[in-house]
Design a protein that fits this description.
The protein is an alpha+beta fold. The chain is 20% helix and 26% strand. It has a 7-stranded mixed β-sheet. A 4-stranded antiparallel β-sheet has the order 10-9-13-14, with no helix packed on it. The longest helix has 14 residues, at 25-38. The protein is globular, with a radius of gyration of 18 Å. The mean pLDDT is 94. Bound molecules: manganese (II) ion. Residues 61, 120, 122, 151, 231, 233-234 line the site of manganese (II) ion.
């Protein structure tokens, strides 16, 4: 897409909200595909994978959204911190700072190694167009595509928006898969490994609030813009990582990414 970025319409102040490549993706798509067909082929291992969305206006996170993770969190004082475990309709959504965003090759730089720092494997939805008060029925029209995400989290009593917003604590990659490439986003296997050992395994059919519900709920409070990222919640099996650990996350039909913890 590098040659395409230079062809985006010139921006004038004040800059429009959202990611401008994602905003214009539909009109640029045929040109992107033409360039991809003619582009030199290299190895994925030879390139550095950054976030496929460079400038999201916001990174939205879903609270407990898998039943087994709700049970796990209720039984673990480190996760619940004495608070009741609440899902979407009680707790709503949280935001992660957009400055936390990195791609898999950048890795996670742990800030508070004396505290518990957990991985959370998640399916990420990339919003493709502006919308507010979106109905469930129309919600998928606002989806451009999907990516794999890590909602890195420091456990503790502070607001989630703080604990989950440390620089590099929002990993998105390994690339963006457009919606048409995924036959049924409500039936995808999701796996996470730490140093080769599988720690999380789930299927998106077990999401408590599905993607249309999350989009309708989020947009009932705020406008969604192209490039906004929606992390859909993690299944059971969360746990701590430490500098030197290597996390791998895979979502069926979307991709697999490796992330080094430093
Ligand atoms: Mn999460």
């Amino acid at each position: 897409v590098t040659p395409i970025v230079g062809k985006l319409p010139p921006l004038t102040w004040p800059l429009p909200l959202g990611d401008q490549l994602i905003r214009h993706f539909a009109s640029l798509r045929s040109e992107i595909e033409r360039l991809a067909d003619a582009a030199p082929v290299g190895k994925v291992s030879d390139v550095e994978l950054l976030s496929p969305v460079a400038n999201p206006g916001k990174i939205i996170g879903a609270p407990v959204n898998y039943a087994e993770h709700a049970a796990e969190a209720s039984n673990d004082q480190t996760l619940s911190h004495g608070r009741p475990i609440r899902g979407l309709l009680e707790a709503g959504l949280f935001l992660k700072a957009s400055s936390a965003l990195v791609g898999p090759s950048e890795g996670v730089q742990q800030r508070f190694p004396e505290r518990r720092n957990d991985y959370e494997a998640e399916l990420v939805v990339v919003i493709g167009k502006t919308g507010t008060r979106i109905s469930r029925a129309e919600a998928m029209d606002y989806v451009l595509g999907y990516a794999v995400g890590l909602d890195m989290t420091i456990r503790g009593p502070e607001f989630p928006c703080l604990r989950k917003s440390v620089d590099s604590y929002a990993v998105v990659g390994p690339w963006l898969v457009t919606k048409d490439e995924v036959a049924d986003v409500g039936r995808l296997e999701l796996n996470l490994w730490v140093n080769g050992e599988r720690r999380q395994h789930a299927n998106t059919k077990d999401l408590i609030s599905d993607i249309p519900t999350l989009i309708a709920y989020a947009s009932s409070f705020y406008t969604l813009y192209p490039g906004d990222l929606l992390m859909t919640g993690t299944p059971s099996g969360v746990g701590p990582v430490h500098p030197g650990d290597r996390i791998e996350v895979e979502v069926e039909a979307v991709g697999r990414m490796a992330v080094q913890v430093q």
